[in-house]
């Protein structure tokens, strides 16, 4: 099992013929993703050769869906065109749009996430690494060769920390890893993923990675307290970040007492979430908790 993305997912790549789109389409195909087409109105009717596979290019998302039955789109388009790309995908009825593009104006993100939600399209991102169900499908830029299938679910604001925890826990493996993005407005939240992992019978434990800025982690903590029965292990990036300075992500800014790493850590711990002081310590907490859970099961 998995959340949002499986081996049955059929993927279109909006912006496939650009430099980033080409590079990561090749990596997605190598990971076993069923990439069924690209979208570029100027190159409709052509195809692109990726090693041993020719991927057709369609003039629109709707054409791609009609020809292939695609249900996922990965968006590799410049920031100025991202809103139009997502609106086009939502209008065409795509089920999941993974928006990799960074630097999208916040008002555009507000507009297209709201629009997509009304159309029934789930957005992952923007400014995210995408998501991967190891051994099944990879939609985005997450390295596919650093872990294996397993029973840990991972939701993270940070791409780099997503990769690190995947690698640290590679011997255990993951059901699905979702990089939700670090912008102030994102389409899929920690809470959305927590709910999905809670309902996924093959996810045994959930890892939640947050960072300074906003109150998403505090809200996630409240959700864990009230709705999640599976063990959750957390990590918060940014304990040494100076107040008032944006750190890496557009949403990672501390203002006064709001959005600090310490406040987030305390909220999560109050909800019963163990929080690691470093990514490596977080991985150790995961291993210890899995061992404890299995000891209880076998006793």
From TrEMBL:
Q: Per UniProt, which keywords does this protein have?
A: Ligase, Nucleotide-binding, Tricarboxylic acid cycle
**Protein name (record):** Succinate--CoA ligase [ADP-forming] subunit alpha
**Natural source organism:** Streptomyces tauricus
Instruction: Report the InterPro entries cross-referenced here.
Output: Cit_synth/succinyl-CoA_lig_AS (IPR017440), Citrt_syn/SCS-alpha_CS (IPR033847), CoA-bd (IPR003781), CoA_lig_alpha (IPR005810), NAD(P)-bd_dom_sf (IPR036291), SUCC_ACL_C (IPR005811), Succinyl-CoA_synth-like (IPR016102)
Give any GO molecular function from the UniProt entry: succinate-CoA ligase (ADP-forming) activity
Enzyme Commission numbers on file: 6.2.1.5
Its quaternary structure? Heterotetramer of two alpha and two beta subunits.
| Residues the record marks as active site | 249 (tele-phosphohistidine intermediate)
